[in-house]
């Protein structure tokens, strides 16, 4: 399995070093020194990356240093102490992390351009250029087709399977809202 690097935010204060990971909510640790904090950060990162096959992880794909620095510029005023981003590199011990990371990396990118990606997928897969033109039967038929793709391809982590899953879940929620409204 390949190495993976996440940036940890090291906040320095009189008591030592506090560590958190912007891409791993609820992953916190600390150390008396920077060296100890690095070792503690590796331990907590291994722990949060140890995702079981059927578990859902709350960890996101690693952000680049540039992404974190840009994001931090907007929140620097909230930190009383100085901080820096420190790269923490480990080898995940669980194979399911790789599959989960691939899905999350794709979804992180897709969320930025969701409407455009969904519309292109619907055009390419089904020749649908405008979902507003679909009647109730057409929407249910589209949902069934998307669900079939989701069932057959989602586990492989394919882009097609991930898109179908996202769209079928979205349409399914809309159908449920209409039925139970």
Spatial extent as radius of gyration: 21 Å
Largest beta sheet: strand ordering: 3-2-1-4
State the distance separating the first and last CA atoms: 48 Å
User: From the 3D coordinates, which CATH architecture of the largest domain would you assign?
Assistant: 2-Layer Sandwich
Strand percentage: 15-25%
Helix share of residues? 40-55%
How is this structure best described in words?
With 181 residues, the chain is an alpha+beta fold. It has two domains: 4-94, Double Stranded RNA Binding Domain, CATH 3.30.160; 113-180. It is built from six helices and four strands; from the N terminus they run βββααβαααα. It has helices at residues 34-49, 65-73, 96-112, 114-126, 136-153, 159-180, and strands at residues 4-13, 16-21, 24-31, 83-90. It has a four-stranded antiparallel beta sheet with strand order 3-2-1-4, with helices on both faces. A hairpin with a 2-residue loop joins strand 1 and strand 2 (16-21). The radius of gyration is 21 Å and the shape is elongated.
């Amino acid at each position: 399995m390949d190495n993976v690097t996440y940036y940890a935010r090291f906040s320095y204060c009189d008591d030592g070093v506090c560590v958190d990971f912007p891409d791993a909510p609820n992953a916190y640790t600390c150390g008396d020194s920077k060296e100890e904090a690095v070792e503690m950060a590796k331990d907590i990162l291994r722990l949060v990356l140890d995702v079981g096959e059927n578990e859902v992880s709350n960890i996101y794909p690693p952000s680049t240093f540039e992404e974190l620095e840009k994001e931090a510029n907007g929140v620097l005023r909230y930190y009383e102490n100085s901080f820096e981003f420190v790269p923490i590199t480990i080898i995940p011990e669980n194979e399911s992390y790789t599959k989960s990371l691939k899905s999350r990396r794709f979804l992180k990118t897709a969320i930025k351009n969701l409407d455009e990606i969904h519309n292109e997928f619907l055009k390419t897969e089904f020749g649908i250029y405008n979902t507003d033109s679909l009647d109730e039967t057409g929407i249910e038929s589209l949902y069934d087709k998307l669900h079939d793709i989701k069932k057959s391809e989602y586990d492989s982590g394919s882009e097609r399977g991930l898109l179908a899953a996202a769209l079928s879940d979205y349409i399914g929620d809309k159908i449920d809202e209409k039925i139970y409204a």
